[in-house]
Amino acid sequence: MSIATVRPDLPLAGINPVAKVAATIPLSIGLVLTLDPVSAGVAIVCELIVFTAVGLGPLLWSPRTLPVWIAAPLTGISMVLYGAPSGTTYWQFGLIEVSDGSIAIGLATMTRVIAIALPAVVLFLTIDPTDFADGLAQTLGLPARFVLGALAALRLVGSSIDDWRTLALARRARGVADKGVIRRSLGQAFALLVLAIRRGGTLATAMESRGFGAPGPRTWAREATFGAPEWRVIAVGCLVAVVSVSAAILTGAWNLVWS
Amino acid sequence: MTGGAIAASAPASIEARGWGWRHGGRRVPAVSGLDLRVAPGERVLLLGASGAGKSTLLHGLAGVLGGDDEGESLGELTIDGRPASAARGRSGLVLQDPDSQIVMARLGDDVAFGLENLGVPADEIWGRVGAALDAVGLRLPLEHSTAALSGGQRQRLALAGVLAMRPGLILLDEPTANLDPDGVHEVRDAVARVADETGATLVVIEHRVSVWMPVVDRVVVLGHGGVIADGSPDDVLVGQAASLRAAGVWLPSDVPWRAHPSTARGVEPLMTAHRLDVARVPGTPVQRGIDLRIDSGRVTAVTGPNGAGKSTLALTMAGLLRPDGGRLEPGAAMAGARGNEPWRWRSRDLLTRIGTVFQHPEHQFLMGSVLAELEVGPRALKMPPRERRERIEPLLTALRLEALTSANPFTLSGGEKRRLSVATVLATRPRMLVLDEPTFGQDANTWRELARLITDLRDDGVGVIAVTHDETFIDAVADTRFELSVDGDAAMSDAGGRGRSNAGGVSE
């Protein structure tokens, strides 16, 4: 399954995933505090420059970021239609009121969604779930039992997709697939759950027989390092946040959401 | 990098004294009063009827039966004199299902998993991982995706995973039951090599004795009251042949049953494939240009290596998947007023035309009891209650399910599940029967019952298409053998069995 593998030759693939997640936090906080187009617009420009510079440009424009480019304008449009009105009103229909104010809010929202989601999607495409689990357990010290359990469960998602297909075929073969789509889907979902639990039970036995959950300290074959490259990634993340927020303050566009 | 690196652990001894185990919520213990000693380095084949507690013993030795909340332990079970439940790391367990034992996404990480759990220092881990992969003959990059491995490779990976932990005791629970013939030999040879190099004690459960005869030096037979036979393979298999057969054990060179020539009259084509392309996911065909005809009163075996598209072909012939190219033509008796495109037929229309038995019975169970499960098809056909009963009762008897009518299908044993999945399909009397690996992982008794049943149906004029790796089944039951290969060639020939004498006109 593609959800469990990442091309190891991608730029930043070797960086501790914890650092990549941490790097996106300052900007997210900054952009949530204010609702203006300048900060988010500057952030997007910075992101495009930074990702292109490190060689993630192709990923930026790949179909996998498409959801961001589709979802952002949609949220923007809904804000234009329903956002708090102010200034000149251009069009009104029932609850819909398009005004200077709602257009500004729509623009600010759309850029915000792009500025926050784009780096998240691009960076996550460079994160291997195994490395992420290593980072969560070793760098952040989350319990190994929990992290590795979740990681192993992730591997079962692929089998569950195959199961779902076969269950649908089997229901057709049993003569019960002509009507009652909703009820049948519920039954099928339940059957999928039963199969997943059984599979999970076998996996748990296999893991346990290999010493998982045994008392005593656990070691890590892949050491999750957190050194200069990781700090550099976080520094770049902070820099983008500072530049965006400064630009908004200097141009006077900064407006705290609660003011 | 050689055996020396994996041989550092001394072989373990096993002792059971009056040992037993009762699963929580069950009244009858799975095992009771078991006395058994296994000396270090012995290689034991563990046999017995299903339900004799072979797996329970193996899980007990692996220390994975769980605590007091999961069941009750009686007597003593020790490895090197210490309780088995406290001897984690001394034993390594390989299970039957190749799909549910892989923990990690990358080959090397998966082997390293057990070592990490045991607290082996990181700088020592990778050397041991390499040695273990070498020992099982898996020479692939450490980053290789575990999802891309074949069944045999997965089982060898599971073996490498336990081997890296340097267990003194290797436990194998039907490790080859779900593999094709190549996979079976791949895994068996890897186990033999590992046992030679490490000298570890070996306990293996397997129905098909011949596979393991070259590897083991002792055979232990479990019955409901403990060990019923124990000794060298020759002594036990010859001396106990009758009772072992009765227990469903598959003795070397045994063919449990052979079909007589078909007595079906008026053979007619039921489903014909013309240059058929088959695909599980539309647009990505796994096999192209197949010509195949399924006749009434004939058993056609579809065989070939994993990945050749056997199941996909069967599901397409069954009207469940849409052909990706070419043409599928139902016979006149099948199509009726429903048109010539089986995948467009209503689900209900399939019931009396094509019955499909899936590889894993769990996929096709819908209800909470065996009886309700059998009534699904007849109810969908709106049969009155009396007629439903008349259909179902003979099936219950024929497939020995009478005592289980109120049991939940998911709680049945492997053989019972298989019999039920066949019975549910037969309840609506389809003209054509599609079976996906009907004999997979079955003991000799269930095998014989299935073979008889399929032959009876054939004699009644049902056309059967069976996807199978089972050469014995092809030889003893099938009339026609249809072989698919990965590179897309297909060849049809007479099957080796007696059925062939009457198979004129089947081959094209």
Helical segment tally of chain A?
Answer: 9
Largest interface: A-B, 53 and 70 residues
Which sequence of SSEs, written as H and E, runs from N to C of chain A?
A: HHHHEEHHHHH
DSSP helical segment count of chain B: 17
Mean pLDDT, all residues of chain A = 89
Supply the helix-strand structural class of chain B. alpha/beta
The separation of the N and C termini of chain B measures 53 Å
Give unreliable regions of chain A as ranges: none
Instruction: Tally the structural domains of chain A.
Output: 2
CATH superfamily of one domain in chain B: P-loop containing nucleotide triphosphate hydrolases
CATH architecture of one domain in chain B: 3-Layer(aba) Sandwich
Rounded to the nearest angstrom, the distance between the terminal CA atoms of chain A is 47 Å
Q: Which band does the percent of strand residues of chain B land in?
A: 15-25%
The CATH topology name of one domain in chain B reads Rossmann fold
- The best one-word shape of chain A is flat
Mean pLDDT of chain B, rounded to whole units? Answer: 87
Spatially, the strands of the biggest sheet of chain B line up as 6-7-8-3-9-10
Principal-axes shape call of chain B:
globular
Class from secondary-structure proportions of chain A: mainly alpha
Structure description:
- The complex is a heterodimer of chains A (259) and B (508).
- Chain A is mostly helical and 259 residues long.
- Chain A folds into two domains: 8-127 and 226-250, no CATH class; 132-209, no CATH class.
- In chain A, 68% of the residues lie in helices and 3% in strands.
- Chain A has a two-stranded antiparallel sheet.
- The longest helix of chain A has 30 residues, at 144-173.
- The relative contact order of chain A is 0.18.
- With 508 residues, chain B is of the alpha/beta class.
- Chain B has a domain at 11-246: 3-Layer(aba) Sandwich (Rossmann fold), CATH 3.40.50.
- Chain B has 17 helices and 19 strands.
- Chain B has helices at 3-6, 54-62, 107-117, 122-135, 151-163, 181-198, 209-212, 233-239, 241-246, 310-317, 332-335, 347-351, 370-380, 385-398, 414-426, 444-459, 471-476, and strands at residues 14-23, 31-38, 43-48, 71-79, 82-83, 91-94, 169-173, 201-205, 218-223, 226-231, 269-278, 287-295, 299-303, 325-330, 354-357, 432-436, 463-467, 480-484, 490-494.
- In chain B, strands 6-7-8-3-9-10 form a six-stranded mixed beta sheet, sandwiched between helices. In chain B, strands 15-16-17-13-18-19 form a six-stranded mixed beta sheet, sandwiched between helices.
- Residues 1-7 and 497-508 of chain B have low confidence and may be disordered.
- Chains A and B meet through helix 7 and helix 8 of A and strand 6, helix 3, helix 4, helix 5 and helix 12 of B.
